[in-house]
Amino acid sequence: MTVTTVTTELTDALTAAALRWEEVAFRAGPADRPEAEAGVRLAYRAAGLTEPEEIVWVGSPLAGARAAALPGSGRSVRDAVRTVPWQRARAEAHTALGPADWALAWSLTGGRLWDPVNGVVARIRQGVTSTEESQTAAALRASTLDAVLGQHDAPWLALFDALERPETEGLARVARSAGWWWPFERVAIVCERPAGLHRDGLSRLHRADGPALSFPDGFAVHAWGGMPVPAGFAATMAALTVQRIDAEENAELRRVMLEHFGYDRYLAESGAVPVHRDETGVLWRIVLPDDEPVTTVEVVNSTAEPDGTFRRYWLRVPPSTRTAREGVAWTFGMAEADYRPDRET
Fold it and tell me: 0.90 cut: is pTM over it?
């Protein structure tokens, strides 16, 4: 396809590609090994390389990173297989579309998928290194950075797919069929897709009763609302108390616990005193050890519920917020002086 502008037809194609590749990115279950291997060989040929003599399958990115880090793996050809065709496809599409239409095309595909998919990538990389000694962890992290991300290259592949870029067809075939992989001169290491993947409504890794992400060889990632947590952490959430939250030394885990416990409940049970109050709401600040304070504005919905009650909401605002009005204004992207609504709903 020769593309020079984002037409209605292309907009539809870009949107459809984003939906297809979103499904690919979060697909779990056994890899289609014959199709993935065909994609690997095509990617090598497209790069002007001899096909790998051997394709080795592993059960997870952890196993793949370990295998790729071994001295006998040989010379990496990732640049030729992935980086060069990627750069060519991007450069030619950008030139054809121009800056404005390029930005629109990206927003409809990769921009839509970038945050949720890379949230998974970040959690996997963290999981790969979390149980290793520092020297080994550094080697494994470097190995993960040298991987072709397979299904998790979905943001860019969605764009290239919609634009029908031939340079990336081999990479796309692998991505539709398998997980991360490492191309070397004589061997390619390819890993299975996740055996299970669980997300919340915001597409973040999340599961209360087990690992949010698991692979066939036992490698797993536990997460709550996208945040990495220890195995068994979710089981402790039902018995949370103010004292347990305050005693948690890990600031990230403490924030997860606080969000689950509820700001309103924490404020009530901790005996907190409001910082400021005006006609827009009440400003609260929760001071936490070794962390920035959690600052929220309590507001009341001006529209009654069917039972006649008025629902209260707690809106997270920057720690530097000084007044309730400033906090409410911030949630609308406005300065305090400019926030003067005629009527609140």
Answer: no
